[in-house]
Amino acid sequence: MVVKDKVVIITGASSGIGEATARILAEKGAKVVLAARREEKLQILSKELGDNVIYKVTDVTRMADLEALAHFTLAQFGKIDVLVNSAGLSPFSNLIDKHVSEWDAMIDINLKGTLYGIGAVLPYLVAQQSGQIINLSSIAGHVAHSGSAVYSATKFAVRALSDSLREEMDKAHTKVRVTVISPGWTDTPITQSITDEKYKASTQKAMANSGMPVERVANTIVEAINLPEDSEWNEVILKSKN
């Protein structure tokens, strides 16, 4: 498999899509660096997945943490092949209710966290003239609905960042690949961040009716990594038929 022995950094790796991706990559022989804020979960997961899986406690809202993560990966494994930006937050609410702290958290994690991850690893990928950045957007990054205004704005922005970065890499004649994965409803703990009871109930109902298993999204990420080095998926939109 192409993924065997690749060095892959995963943010948001302590649960959800990030954790599922780490499990599949480890099984296929990749060297995985888990990054998230919850050290206890990272310790348990890295121990379970074996010697080629390590972790570093990382707050994606801090550029210094992402830079330290990149340095740590290079010190441990000697290279960086792939960054999977999967850390995310989605506390849905109506704008009229002014959940300002939640707006800030989504912008800091979903948008700035993705940008900081890119900024931390990009110099190394460009220097080695190869590598891949996979950013998690969402179907909400294509269509916005009431309650999802800020979340959708951050996910639209992730797609814009990715499109611009891809063109930048092409113009620089690098072989750095940039892929966006945009899932629909996915069965992750992300709904736990919703404080608005109305949106929490409707989101949980949508998850129950049409939520995809996290492994489906994780397998898509692995497939994107597994493409020939001279090929890339610009974006994959993935949703349940239910």
TrEMBL record:
User: Which residues lie in coiled coils?
Assistant: none
Gene3D superfamilies xrefs: NAD(P)-binding Rossmann-like Domain
* Superkingdom, natural source: Bacteria
- Keyword annotations for this protein? Oxidoreductase
Task: Name the CDD domains on file.
Answer: SDR_c
Q: Which GO terms describe its molecular function?
A: oxidoreductase activity, acting on the CH-OH group of donors, NAD or NADP as acceptor
Which residue numbers delimit the Ketoreductase domain? 6-188
Pfam families, per this entry? adh_short (PF00106)
- SUPFAM superfamilies (UniProt xref): NAD(P)-binding Rossmann-fold domains
The record's annotation in SMART domains points to: PKS_KR
Name a GO CC annotation attached to this entry.
Answer: membrane
The keyword Oxidoreductase is assigned to this record: yes
InterPro entries noted in UniProt: KR_dom, NAD(P)-bd_dom_sf, Sc_DH/Rdtase_CS, SDR_fam
Concerning its family, UniProt says: Belongs to the short-chain dehydrogenases/reductases (SDR) family.
- What is the recorded name of this protein? SDR family NAD(P)-dependent oxidoreductase
